[in-house]
């Protein structure tokens, strides 16, 4: 594996994790949005990452001992969560129904914070890989 493929793989992870963090921040920012352009409350969004390049994840695992390496990740889709919105009793709210219930977004801030920690750790791991690859390249130039 060359230094450039290492950097390319790590940079794909950085890009995917940045988009994951952007999606999480959008979810948190809209945790109380009861009215959207599509109608109804905001729907939580989540990203789907897939291996880039050589087939499925199980094929990559099957070739783990060989000399072929993965080519990073890519974001395949940003999906809306289909779970039902939370109903909150608030008859004074402008979006309340006839019974006084307001459909609130299906965003759980605690879950989003846990996802944010995971995305941040994954981003940091990719930065560490890039720094290690850069350090190895610099050491090889000193030889």
Automatic annotation (TrEMBL):
Residues 7-35 form the Flagellar basal body rod protein N-terminal domain. It is found in: Bacterial flagellum basal body. The keyword Ribonucleoprotein does not apply. GO terms for biological process: bacterial-type flagellum-dependent swarming motility. Residues 99-141 form the Flagellar basal-body/hook protein C-terminal domain. InterPro entries: Flag_bb_rod_N (IPR001444), Flagellar_basal_body_rod_CS (IPR019776), Flg_bb/hook_C_dom (IPR010930), FlgC (IPR006299). One of its GO terms (cellular component) is bacterial-type flagellum basal body, rod. It comes from the Bacteria. Its main location: other. Keywords: Bacterial flagellum, Cell projection, Cilium, Flagellum. PANTHER family: FLAGELLAR BASAL-BODY ROD PROTEIN FLGC, FLAGELLAR PROTEIN. The basal body constitutes a major portion of the flagellar organelle and consists of four rings (L,P,S, and M) mounted on a central rod. The rod consists of about 26 subunits of FlgG in the distal portion, and FlgB, FlgC and FlgF are thought to build up the proximal portion of the rod with about 6 subunits each. This is Flagellar basal-body rod protein FlgC. It comes from Candidatus Aquicultor primus.
